[in-house]
């Protein structure tokens, strides 16, 4: 069984990934990351209407999904029907930094939801969405 990948960053953010992801084929990685991004988009669209435990759960899903994305773009995984551009691997540190920023924003979203701070929660939702947009602008093929 693969070990859990855990990365810690200066922002006191810990990224823990699902160990099962390491065993996926490149094709399965593409499908998994596409499913995660679709799910995250849906979560973000509805997150503004949530509060309390539902808002915390939404943030938890985003934290897990965004963390898992950090390991779903290994070299050689640009196969099949992927919108991933080669720049992901050419500027991988920049790509990973955006994911860390997204996890940080999702963590702020959870903190705000837990505290019942609607303003901070809404700001954090916007921050997560902005990182998604930033990543797609640079690292995803235009449709």
UniProtKB/TrEMBL annotation:
Q: Where is the signal peptide?
A: none
Q: Which domain of life is it from?
A: Bacteria
Against Gene3D superfamilies, the record matches this protein to:
Cytochrome c/b562
Pfam families linked to this entry: Cytochrom_C_2
Question: How is the protein altered post-translationally, as described in the entry?
Answer: Binds 1 heme group per subunit.
Q: Name one GO biological process term.
A: electron transport chain
User: Upper taxonomic classification of the species?
Assistant: Bacteria, Pseudomonadati, Pseudomonadota, Alphaproteobacteria, Hyphomicrobiales
Q: Which residues bind heme c?
A: 132, 135-136
Q: Which GO terms describe its molecular function?
A: electron transfer activity; heme binding; iron ion binding
Which named protein is this? Cytochrome C
GO CC field: periplasmic space
- Keywords for this entry? Electron transport, Heme, Iron, Metal-binding, Transport
């Amino acid at each position: 069984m693969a070990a859990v990948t855990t990365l810690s960053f200066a922002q006191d953010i810990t990224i823990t990934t699902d160990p099962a992801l390491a065993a996926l084929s490149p094709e399965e990685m593409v499908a998994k990351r596409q499913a995660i991004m679709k799910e995250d988009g849906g979560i973000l669209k509805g997150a503004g209407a949530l509060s309390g435990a539902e808002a915390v759960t939404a943030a938890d899903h985003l934290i897990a999904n965004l963390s898992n994305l950090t390991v779903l773009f290994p070299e050689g995984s640009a196969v099949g029907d992927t919108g991933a551009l080669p720049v992901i691997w050419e500027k991988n540190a920049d790509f990973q930094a955006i994911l860390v920023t997204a996890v940080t924003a999702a963590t702020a979203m959870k903190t705000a939801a837990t505290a019942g701070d609607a303003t901070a929660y809404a700001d954090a939702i916007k921050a997560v969405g902005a990182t998604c947009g930033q990543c797609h602008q640079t690292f995803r093929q235009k449709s």
